Every structure is written in structure tokens, then in C-alpha cells.
Amino acid sequence: MNVRVLFLVLLLLASPLLQVARCQVDSEDHSSIVDDVVGEHSDSGAEEEDQDLDNLTSAPGVETVSVFPKNSAKLVPAGEETELLVALKNDGKSSLGVMGIRASVHLPYDHKLLVQNLTMMRFNNASIPTSVQATFSYIFAVSQYLQPGAFDLVGYIIYDVEGKPYQNVFYNGTIEVVESGGLLSGESVFLITLGIALLLLLGLWAYSQVQRLTKKTKKVSKVEVGTRSIDASMDEWLEGTHLAKTLSGKSKSKKN
């Protein structure tokens, strides 16, 4: 019974180490982003407020490339900022104005399953003339409740050419979300704690078995010693009495 109680207590102590995977979605939706971006950067005055960002295409002659600086493994600690450098080269016929960068996290086997919309980073007056390349730093952070594992990151850079908005996909690949802070993850700590608890339970069980065997051995020994001591005491007590002589005579007659 005590062993069961100890096991339950150890489980209760280890339970806070478990983490529940949750995903937080940015409260700012795509339509509001379009309103802000187009309203701030449109030079032609055309009404583009109802256009969805997902329907934007890339402009001819505009190319992008991205890299995780000093992070070739593409590790993204949950809840911490991660930097992604985005280079945009304008080989088009007109200058372009960079509006902002956005990104989203998806499940790797189905991009329709959105995990998290990341923060939209806006740029003011970021103009790139023709035949010029510019690099932008996009800093993002996935939810601290996101379960460690492989996810797909899709990043877009939004810009306008002569008042018309466009976007290029600068990254569409896998990232590895890891837990932040410390060498050991919560799951590792829980497994270690559970292993120690099981070892303690095994030790208590072995100790109880040894104690039971020891008690049984001592009990048998006490009975034998007690019988001998009682017989010896009775012999001393009966020594010199008529009953002792009678018993002595009977034993001699039996021997004869």
C-alpha cells in the first residue's frame, strides 16, 4: 500500500513537467494587413483594400533568396526570436517599394493546416531601384507552446511596382522547432524523473521482500531456542523431586 502511495506522489510531482502543445494565431488577419499596406504605400490611389494577400503574384524581374544566419540547421527555439535574412534583387524596368514581410507556419504534410500566422514586419520608404539588390532582416518568433518537431515555414516579401502590390515567396521549407532554455527538454526531465521513481519503487519492493524473509527466519529461530530453554528450565525445576526420579527410572528401564 505504501509503495502505491509513493508512486502516485511521484507522478503528481512530475506532472507539471509535461507540456501541452498549443498554437497561438496572430490576431491580425490578412484583410487588415492588406488595408494597412496598400493604404500606406499605394501611389496611384487605386483601391486595392479588398485584395487578398494570398492572391498576389510576383512581378517580372524580381528575385529573392533567404538564409538563416549562423543557423544552417534552421533551428527555431519556441518563444524566442529567430532571424532570417531576405535578399531581394530588382531586375525589372521600374523601381519597387518594399511594403513588408510576412510568414506562416504549417504542418509539413499539408499546408492547408495552418499552425500559426507570424508577425507582419512593415517597411516605410524602402525603395529599390532597378538593377539593385537589398537585404532585409526578418525577425520572428513561434509560439512558446508549440510542440518541438519539424514544421514548414512559408515566407513572403510584399512590394509594389508603380502602385500595384506584388509578393514573392522567399522561403518555403522545413524548420526544426526546439525547446528554449537548457540542454534538457521537459520531456527528457519527465522521463528521467519517471525512471528514478521506478528505480525507487523497485528498491522498496526488493527491500520489503528481504525484510519478510528475514522476519520469517527470525521467527523460526526464536521458537526453537525457546523450546530448548523451556525444556532445560523444566529439568532444573524438577531436579530432586519425586517426579524427576520417576522419569529417570523410566528412561533407564527403556534403555535396558
Written account of the structure:
The protein is an alpha+beta fold and 256 residues long. It contains 4 helices and 9 strands. The protein has helices at residues 2-14, 30-41, 186-238, 242-255; strands at 62-67, 75-77, 82-90, 96-107, 110-117, 121-128, 132-140, 149-161, 164-178. The strands form 2 sheets. Strands 2, 4, 5, 6, 8 and 9 form a 6-stranded mixed sheet that branches. The protein starts with a helix and ends with a helix.
Topology of helices and strands:
Blueprint: H1 2-14, H2 30-41, E1 62-67, E2 75-77, E3 82-90, E4 96-107, E5 110-117, E6 121-128, E7 132-140, E8 149-161, E9 164-178, H3 186-238, H4 242-255
Helix pairs in contact: 1-3
Membrane topology: Single-pass type I membrane protein
Family: Belongs to the TRAP-alpha family.
Signal peptide: 1-23
List keywords for this structure.
9 strands; 256 residues; three-stranded antiparallel beta sheet; alpha+beta; six-stranded mixed beta sheet; disordered N terminus
How is this structure best summarized?
Its main location: endoplasmic reticulum. Helices cover 36% and strands 32% of the residues.
Strand content: 25-35%
Q: Number of helical runs?
A: 4
Q: What level of helicity do the residues show? A: 25-40%
Task: Work out the number of β strands.
Answer: 9
Low-confidence stretches: 3-51
- Structural classification: alpha+beta
Choose one word for the global shape.
rod-shaped
Please describe the biggest sheet, giving its number of strands, its sense, and whether it closes into a barrel.
Answer: 6 strands, mixed
Order of helices and strands: HHEEEEEEEEEHH
> Rg to the nearest angstrom?
41 Å
CA-to-CA gap between the ends? 62 Å
